[in-house]
Amino acid sequence: MPAFPISDPDDPRIAAYRHVRERDLVGREGLFVAEGEVVLRLLARSTRMETVSVLVAQKRLAGLADVLAPLHPETPVYAASQAVMDAIVGVPIHRGILALGRPRATPTAEALLADLPARALVLGLVGVANHDNMGALFRNAAAFGASAVLLDPTCCDPLYRKAIRVSVGAALTTPFARLGPDEDMISLLAAHGVAPVALSPSGTRTLADLPRAPRAGLVMGAEGPGLPDALMARAATVSIPMAPGFDSLNVAVTAGIVLHHLAFVAKPEETP
């Protein structure tokens, strides 16, 4: 795929790549930035996301032929020297690979759950506002085969540049939907036959005793406040045994442990 050479950091064709960090704060009007070879490879092959353009350091171009091959022939690829690329981005961009993307569609939570297979794992997130945690949660969801991720209205954007990078591209491949302000996560899960499991240090059962429902929904809250009591009252609550005197794990670590248990360890739930 031919690349358009860029020698001027003020070239209007690459305006969307300028001052990446500042634009992270103000938003990109439906676009997102993907960074690094692994993430670009996933984006280029994604059926859920569209690659709008690619900007790479000239020295990286020859080695990216197979990564760029799946792109639509009209997707512009720009190449710049490392110095020019750093000037465009506003910081040293050591990976030398950036791309602009946009979601091809934005499914509703209702539509996403309606399309679940008979056996499914769903990760539900409430109030997760840290982009590192969001990226790690999506990485765990992909690693353990979650069919969908649901976000309440207060969660941060999984398509924020840092979240995508921490997720190693899983935010581009794992289906997700954000609930509307009047949608209730527990009610929505129950309406689609998904048994909600809420994590809490005061859970009524331990993880080892948790069976696997055909459709299971792991609901996680932000570190610190956790999940609202009213939400936990309507779900099975589970705790992870820990060493004496300690009862807290990072939210992404907790999700990884429980998703692994539900995917590979838990015995099927007995039918009455």
Give your account of this protein's structure.
This protein has about 270 residues and is of the alpha/beta class. The protein has two domains: about 5-105, 60s Ribosomal Protein L30, Chain: A, CATH 3.30.1330.30; about 110-265, SPOUT methyltransferase, trefoil knot domain (Alpha/beta knot, 3-Layer(aba) Sandwich), CATH 3.40.1280. Helix content is about 30%, strand content about 20%. The strands form two sheets. The chain has a seven-stranded parallel beta sheet. The chain has a five-stranded mixed beta sheet with strand order 1-4-3-5-2. Helix 7 links the parallel strand 6 and strand 7 (about 150). The model has no long low-confidence stretch (mean pLDDT about 95).
Number of domains: 2
Arithmetic mean pLDDT: 93
Largest sheet: 7 strands, parallel
Count the E strands: 12
Give the topology, please.
Blueprint lengths: L3 E3 L13 H7 L5 E4 L1 H9 L3 E9 H4 L3 H4 L8 E4 L1 H8 L7 E7 L5 H6 L5 E7 L4 H13 L4 E4 L9 H6 L3 H4 L2 E3 L6 H7 L3 E5 L5 E2 L8 E7 L7 H4 L3 E4 L11 H15 L7
Parallel strand pairs: 1-4, 3-4, 6-7, 6-11, 7-8, 9-11, 9-12, 10-12
Antiparallel strand pairs: 2-5, 3-5
Helix pairs in contact: 7-12
Question: TL;DR?
Answer:
By secondary structure, this protein is α/β, with parallel strands linked by helices. It has helices spanning 20-26, 37-45, 58-61, 65-68, 82-89, 109-114, 131-143, 161-166, 170-173, 185-191, 229-232, 251-265; strands at 4-6, 32-35, 49-57, 77-80, 97-103, 120-126, 148-151, 176-178, 195-199, 205-206, 215-221, 236-239. The protein folds into two domains: 4-103, 60s Ribosomal Protein L30, Chain: A (2-Layer Sandwich); 109-265, 3-Layer(aba) Sandwich (Alpha/beta knot), CATH 3.40.1280.
